[in-house]
Amino acid sequence: MTGVYFSGTGNTKHCVELLCALLDPEMPVIPLEESGSRNKIAEAQEILLGYPVQFSNIPYFVRDYIRRNADLWAGKTVFCVATMGAFSGDGAGCAARLLQKYGAHVCGGLHLQMPDSVCDVKALKKSADQNRSLIQQADEKIRRTAAELKNGRYPQEGLSLFSHIAGLLGQRLWFYTRTSGYSDKLKIGSACTGCGRCAALCPMQNLIVRDGKAAGGDRCTMCYRCISSCPEQAITLLGRQLYEQCRFDRYKGGLKA
Ligand SMILES: Cc1cc2nc3c(=O)[nH]c(=O)nc-3n(C[C@H](O)[C@H](O)[C@H](O)COP(=O)(O)O)c2cc1C
Ligand code: SF4
Ligand code: SF4
After folding, report:
1. Ligand 3 pocket, 186 CB below 6 A?
2. Ligand nearest to the CA of 191
3. What b-and-e string marks burial along 187-206, b requiring 16 or more CB atoms within 10 Å of the CB?
4. Mean pLDDT over all residues of the chain?
5. Rounded to the nearest whole angstrom, what is the distance from the C-alpha of residue 88 to the centroid of ligand 1?
6. Does 78 contact ligand 3 (Cβ within 6 A)?
7. How far is the CA of 22 from the centre of ligand 2 (A)?
8. Cα–Cα distance for residue pair 19/27, rounded to 1 Å
9. Are the C-beta atoms of residues 39 and 78 closer than 8 Å to each other?
10. Which ligand minimizes its atom distance to the CA of 17?
């Protein structure tokens, strides 16, 4: 099996790396945006695919990747892992249905609740302790799941018709336009010092520094990586004000930076 994931603020990276390491410490695990990911997927028969849920849907980059590489999936067995801040209905099912369309066999789905990565909208914010406890619970679920998978039992979370309807009616229908393409709505405020950190981190190469200030393009997949890492807290996307930069490494490392 090979692990591939897309992760904005580190939650999905952590979950996929932990699950893969528990299944087989030698298992290759690679970010989807890395240039070698296509070859790694092509070589593998079984894929573990992880991504964060956005508005009860798949990040547009992940959908775009699956479609652009439509020839990759026929005959592959895929286990879908969706991380989410609260609820998705069919987070795993969204990728599963697309992969099945291109000939993959989806053997299971796993949903993991993690800290919410949207840091410029106040709704549903949790304290640092609550987020650390969420991570602990997710880690325990990952350990249980690894044991199940080793025994050939595959959880089917997010794959049923009931989950599909819950995902559609819960959020996806109302917010469909938010995830139907890349976004050009990134806002960079006057606090930007032009340090270039955001441009170096963006998985979509959607940021450049020009005349001492960062500027966003029209290929943002709303992953919140730049927003949660800007030292000046100068970037916003869905909201206009930053509440707390949400990054997995801050919770794990004790919220120092
Ligand atoms: C644009 C956006 C939309 C999101 N929508 C949802 C959602 O519909 N339901 C949910 O439970 N979490 C939602 N989240 C939270 C993320 O799915 C969650 O924090 C995820 O674990 C982030 O993973 P990452 O750190 O790997 O990017 C959303 C996050 C973003 C950035
Ligand atoms: S990380 Fe922040 S301060 Fe640095 S260039 Fe990007 S927006 Fe500006
Ligand atoms: S611009 Fe920021 S939020 Fe958008 S894809 Fe790049 S890192 Fe993610």
Report:
1. yes
2. 2
3. ebeeebeeeebbbeebbbeb
4. 94
5. 9
6. no
7. 37
8. 10
9. no
10. 1
Ligand 2 centroid, distance to 247 Cα (angstroms): 16
Which residue is listed with tokens 């469909």? 176
In this predicted structure, the answer to whether residue 254 has a pLDDT above a threshold of 60 is no
Tens digits of residue pLDDT in 130-139:
999 999 999 9
3-state secondary structure of 183: strand
Q: Which residues contact 8 (CB under 8 A, 6 or more apart)?
A: 52, 59, 117, 203, 222, 223, 224, 225, 228
User: Residue 224: its pLDDT value, please?
Assistant: 98
How far is residue 137's CA from residue 21's CA, in Å, rounded to a whole number? 18
Going by their DSSP bridges, the two strands 187-188 and 207-210 should be labelled as unpaired
Give 139-155 pLDDT, tens digit per residue: 999 999 999 999 999 99
Ligand 3 and 20: CB distance under 6 A: no
Residue 255: pLDDT above 70? no
Ligand 2 atom 6: residue of nearest CA: 198
Atom of ligand 1 nearest to the CA of 15: 26
- Give the chain's domains with CATH numbers: 2-179 (3.40.50.360), 187-252 (3.30.70.20)
